[in-house]
Amino acid sequence: MSLSAWLENGWLLEHVSSPQEISHLLDLVGRDLADCRSAGLSRDWRFNIAYNAALQCAKTALAASGYRAAKGSHHYRAIRSLEFTIGADRKTLWSLDAFRKKRNVSEYNHAGSITDKELDEMIALAGRLRREVERWLRAKHPELMANPG
């Protein structure tokens, strides 16, 4: 599979990005990485915020690659696209997908379902993804970086 095959299947839409869009998406990641560390919030909510930071990382890489996820299963597609954009390994993809499912449970079905360990792992993963996406952007799409240095 490839992103172009995903486009043909209707899982992605073509998208033209800009340095401003990439900057805004990275600002969202930064905000979420700061907010998910707020001690005054529940573990569930902090987990959801950290998950959103990771999701925004995936959306950033996808936008820089000229795509955005189509509406159906867009979280799943954005996460899986990291394999084709930044070259994320299977362990990272598996972890993010497991956290996506866990987030759905905590968001819609069961309060208090997130453990301290899961929260710490999600925050660490989101932070690592941010660094990897920024490194990838500087290497592959420096024209989209507001400050490529």
Which SSEs are present, and which pair or pack?
Elements: H1 3-8, E1 12-14, H2 19-35, H3 43-64, E2 67-69, H4 74-85, H5 90-108, H6 116-140
Antiparallel strand pairs: 1-2
Helix pairs in contact: 2-3, 3-4, 3-5, 3-6, 4-5
Notes on the protein architecture:
With 149 residues, this protein is mainly alpha-helical. Helix 4 runs antiparallel to helix 5. The longest helix is centred in the C-terminal third of the chain and has 25 residues, at 116-140. The protein has a single domain (17-142), classed as Up-down Bundle (Four Helix Bundle (Hemerythrin (Met), subunit A)), CATH 1.20.120. It is built from six helices and two strands; from the N terminus they run H-E-H-H-E-H-H-H. It has a two-stranded antiparallel ribbon. 68% of the residues lie in helices and 4% in strands. The protein has helices at residues 3-8, 19-35, 43-64, 74-85, 90-108, 116-140, and strands spanning 12-14, 67-69. The model has no long low-confidence stretch (mean pLDDT 92). The radius of gyration is 15 Å and the shape is globular.
